[in-house]
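Dear Dr. L.,

I hope this message finds you well. Following up on our conversation about the binding site, I have prepared a predicted three-dimensional model of the protein together with nicotinamide-adenine-dinucleotide. For your records, I am including the exact sequence and ligand specification that went into the calculation, followed by the structure tokens. Please feel free to forward this to your student if that is useful.
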Amino acid sequence: MDGLDLTGRVAVVTGGAGGIGRAICADLASLGAHVVVADLDADAAAETAKPLGGTARPVDLADPASIDAFTGAVGPVDVLVHNAGVSIVEPFTESDPAHWDLMWKVNLRAPMQLTRALLPGMSERGHGRLVFVSSDGARAGSGGEGAYAATKSGLFGLAKTLAREAARGGVTSNVVCPGPTDTPMVRQVAERHPGLLDKLARQIPLRRIGRPSDIAGLVAFLCTDRAAYITGQTLSVSGGITMQ
Ligand SMILES: NC(=O)c1ccc[n+]([C@@H]2O[C@H](COP(=O)([O-])OP(=O)(O)OC[C@H]3O[C@@H](n4cnc5c(N)ncnc54)[C@H](O)[C@@H]3O)[C@@H](O)[C@H]2O)c1
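The resulting structure of the complex is given below.
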């Protein structure tokens, strides 16, 4: 199939050293992109980037000054995958506002700040791809994830607005919503709730929780020329647990 080659494109993947992020980096690199792994965990970012021939660029997405330093140093970017995310699970009425602030900064403010800095260059060059990794928890609601869902829901409006504003510059903007996916983020919750993953799998029409590669395949496709006519969309990758 033509139109899948990303040779010559520079792709920034935030949270690129995490479960889903690593799979996204691997798929983008396999299509020829030069991947920039942007993650808080410098060692894991280096470990991810090295075999892919990519670049590790540590950044703290909770810190606006760190994001400024990142965008000032990264050079021209063609593909920006906002994948980093923080989820702190607690009943909303017992939730800690300090946790809201962290999730707001990493999950929503950072994508805004990164896009504000890097989108103008894409538009000037007449090509770009924005992909926002949100969550089915934001589409459908998810117990214990009120603040997380609020921040992840903000990505829907941001991505659609950018799809309208950036279209003339050849830039597309889409949202991918994973369902429960087997990564360190979900394993941490599952450790506290034995049997959770099996219970979730039984509720999913395709009868298993997601693998990072399930999410990465769609993200990488949206970054190709083949997806040039797809913009402003929100797509779930969740084995059918959310259908809309
Ligand atoms: N795993 C799931 O079931 C699931 C479901 C729905 C949505 N998601 C979303 O998918 C994305 C990836 O999740 P994952 O499961 O791979 O998580 P993960 O915890 O495995 O990876 C997250 C990565 O983000 C990085 N990160 C965290 N805080 C950061 C910060 N301040 N600055 C820079 N990097 C930071 C971490 O170091 C880590 O490498 C997240 O946005 C998450 O909300 C995941």
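In brief: The longest strand covers residues 171-178.

With kind regards,
A. P.
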